[in-house]
């Protein structure tokens, strides 16, 4: 259960400047597995932080280790191979070799170098991104530019259709967490697919690297979605209006996941935007989504033991702490909840995206949702539909087979699905192009 909780919460983490001695972390990770190999479970358990100690007892750790032996065989070697900042934590990937095969692990460390979580890393894949069939490079061109002020610029690509005039422009706004300009997740690049697919149909686009990926130091202090998302998206909207050949009155915002949640806020502050596209956009609070995702993982595990139910219950109690809407005597702006600052949660919680979208009467809105999306569910789509379905400027469409990355899938699974390359649905591309060009 802890595995799924860590995976789900990690989807929401933004990179911060977590100053940590990487060599020490690698040594700590390797030493932890050495203790397990030597069956020194009390010493291994002592490396946990207090929260993890209460959730995974020494006996539980011992059972977990022996279960791994049953599945993978005798443990042979462990080597830390990679580290990554995730919110207030550091994730260290450890390569494990067993007699019956290999299995990587990820250990989460806090600033005190105590272990806050353990879970299995997804299996490695040799698959790589492949260009979609609808990406005809003869029909469009791409230009690299920079977005933002000197010293804080973001690499940006402008994709424009060839031999076209007065074409519309789409600005892509990322989902949660650090991301490149293609919004790369595993072997998938949704924004790259969308940019090429729309360009082949005469629609330009602007996509840029998310600030949290290249300037993590800016997010070591208190911040909100304004600094993380909105400021750069607003600058990208301004850039879109200056593209040669573009119709400055036909600029659209495509917001994915968190970006879709914030798209109404962008439209309200940038009235020159012609329309917004909300793709897999939460209509509920993030807290509700995290709980739903963890319950989904719990059900998927089919482990209904009392211990597992208790871990889920304990996790939900922790997650519910993120529902704050104001600071208090015990909650300061820099207080950390689920790896994110209290001020960030307050900013999101006092924002009602459905209400803001309902108040947009002049700008067009297109809401799309996939049925195989385990991160944002049909419950959100139904809320959008109930609130906006009768408005003349709003169109909604539900795609039963699409997942969170907007590709067609045969079933709803987990993040492991993202390791397999699959392009954004051509049906969705066609619908987006038709909607954007409609008057």
Model description:
This protein is α/β, with parallel strands linked by helices and 439 residues long. The chain folds into 2 domains: 2-120, Nuclear Transport Factor 2, Chain: A; 137-280 and 352-437, Alpha/Beta hydrolase fold, catalytic domain (Rossmann fold), CATH 3.40.50. Helix content is 36%, strand content 22%. The strands form 3 sheets. Strands 5-6-8-7-9-10-13-14 form an 8-stranded mixed sheet, sandwiched between helices. A 4-stranded antiparallel sheet has the order 1-2-3-4. The longest helix is centred in the first third of the chain and has 16 residues, at 22-37. The protein is globular. Mean pLDDT is 89; it is low at 1-20.
In the predicted model, the low-confidence regions spanning at least 5 consecutive residues are 1-20
Total count of domains: 2
Shape estimate: globular
The tally of beta strands, per DSSP, is 14
Order of adjacent strands in the largest pleated sheet? 5-6-8-7-9-10-13-14
In percent, how helical is the residue content?
25-40%
CATH architecture of the largest domain: 3-Layer(aba) Sandwich
């Amino acid at each position: 259960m802890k595995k799924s909780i860590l995976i789900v919460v990690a989807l929401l983490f933004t990179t911060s400047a977590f100053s940590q001695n990487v060599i020490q972390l690698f040594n700590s990770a390797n030493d932890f597995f050495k203790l397990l190999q030597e069956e020194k479970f009390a010493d291994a358990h002592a490396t946990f932080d207090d929260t993890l100690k209460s959730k995974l007892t020494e006996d539980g750790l011992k059972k977990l280790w022996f279960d791994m032996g049953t599945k993978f065989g005798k443990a042979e070697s462990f080597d830390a191979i990679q580290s990554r900042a995730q919110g207030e934590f550091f994730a260290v990937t450890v390569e494990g070799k067993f007699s019956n095969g290999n299995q990587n692990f990820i250990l989460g460390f806090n600033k005190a170098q105590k272990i806050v979580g353990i879970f299995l890393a997804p299996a490695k894949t040799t698959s790589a991104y492949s260009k979609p069939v609808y990406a005809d490079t003869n029909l469009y061109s791409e230009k690299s530019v920079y977005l933002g002020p000197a010293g804080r610029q973001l690499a940006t690509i402008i994709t424009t259709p060839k031999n076209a005039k007065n074409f519309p422009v789409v600005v892509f706004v990322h989902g949660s967490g650090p991301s490149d300009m293609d919004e790369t997740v595993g072997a998938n690049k949704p924004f790259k697919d969308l940019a090429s697919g729309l360009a082949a149909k005469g629609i330009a686009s602007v996509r840029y690297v998310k600030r949290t990926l290249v300037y993590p130091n800016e997010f070591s202090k208190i911040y909100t979605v304004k600094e993380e998302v909105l400021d750069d998206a607003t600058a990208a909207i301004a850039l879109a209006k200056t593209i040669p050949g573009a119709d400055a009155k036909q600029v659209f915002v495509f917001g994915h996941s968190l970006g879709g949640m914030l798209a109404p806020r962008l439209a309200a502050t940038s009235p020159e935007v012609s329309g917004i596209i909300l793709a897999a956009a939460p209509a509920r609070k993030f807290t509700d989504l995290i709980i739903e995702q963890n319950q989904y993982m719990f059900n998927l595990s089919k482990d209904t033991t009392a211990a597992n139910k208790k871990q889920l219950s304990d996790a939900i109690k922790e997650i519910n702490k993120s529902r704050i809407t104001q600071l208090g005597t015990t909650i300061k702006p820099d207080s950390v909840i689920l790896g994110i600052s209290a001020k960030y949660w307050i900013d999101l919680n006092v924002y009602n995206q459905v209400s803001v979208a309902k108040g947009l009467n002049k700008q067009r809105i297109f809401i799309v949702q996939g049925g195989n999306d385990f991160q944002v569910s049909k419950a959100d789509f139904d809320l959008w539909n109930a609130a906006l379905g009768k408005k003349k400027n709003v169109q909604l469409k539900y795609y039963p087979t699409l997942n969170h990355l907007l590709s067609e899938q045969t079933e709803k699974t987990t993040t492991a699905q993202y390791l397999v390359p699959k392009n954004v649905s051509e049906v969705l591309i066609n619908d987006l192009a038709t909607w954007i060009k409609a008057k």
